[in-house]
Amino acid sequence: AGTMTIGIVSAKGRTLDSERAAPGGGRFSAADVIQTDAAINPGNSGGPLINLRGEVIGVNRAIRTESSTASGEPVNSGIGFAVSINIVRRVLPALIANGKYDYPYLGMNSLPEVGLLQAEALGLPQTSGVYVTGVTAGGPANKAGVRPDSGTAEGGMAGNGDLIVAIDGHPVQVFGELISYLIGNVAAGQTVTLTILRKGETLELKVLVGARP
């Protein structure tokens, strides 16, 4: 009635687009996702990802697919994704007790990561950090004074956005690390401290985290 496949964990802290649309366009991000090359096939979502000690470390969620069969079934390209058990431990008790879970929410968009060419083009002092490209009007980041890139008429970037380098003193290299920390350690209604670089200055902003709409 069931099958087992085997592989390795090739990455932790990945992000995936959520099924839910975010205010102002785009989609929310699902964070702290485990990437594995153990085969996950259509219908396997919801099954456990287990380590060699028999411990459940994640719940299988999605596969990367670039093609489909003649009948339209997606074909696994060898990359699968599972929700981290750390997230399950936070969400499941709330679902059992209340029927819902309020994900923490900052209300901001950013580059997935900052490459060397992007850092040079934007005049950023480093390639690590979360470069803010947009904030939701009236959202937590907007109220705290986080500044996004103002952009240009051609749709490019002006290089005047904030670069977040730490949250609550924990350094962040890429957007996925910021969201993973937020989802795994912070609840709606708590306050976090963002360390940002802005025009050569290091600033700390207190952000009252909201509940995701």
**Total E-strand runs:** 13
**Anisotropy-based shape:** globular
Q: Please tell me the overall pLDDT.
A: 87
Helix/strand class? alpha+beta
Order of helices and strands: EEEEEHEEHEHEEHEEE
Give the percentage of residues in beta strands.
35-45%
Low-confidence parts, pLDDT < 50 over ≥5 residues? none
Level of helix content?
Answer: 10-25%
Q: Compute the gyration radius: what is it?
A: 19 Å
Largest sheet: 6 strands, antiparallel
Count up the helices: 4
Termini gap: 39 Å
Please outline what is shown here.
The chain is built from 4 helices and 13 strands. It has helices at residues 85-98, 116-122, 140-144, 175-185, and strands at 9-21, 27-36, 48-50, 56-68, 74-84, 104-105, 108-110, 130-135, 163-167, 170-171, 191-198, 201-208, 210-211.
Task: Give your account of this protein's structure.
- This protein is an alpha+beta fold.
- It is 17% helix and 40% strand.
- It has helices at 85-98, 116-122, 140-144, 175-185; strands at residues 9-21, 27-36, 48-50, 56-68, 74-84, 104-105, 108-110, 130-135, 163-167, 170-171, 191-198, 201-208, 210-211.
- Strands 7, 8, 9, 10, 11 and 12 form a 6-stranded antiparallel beta sheet that branches. Strands 1-2-5-4-3 form a 5-stranded antiparallel beta sheet.
- The longest helix is centred in the middle third of the chain and has 14 residues, at 85-98.
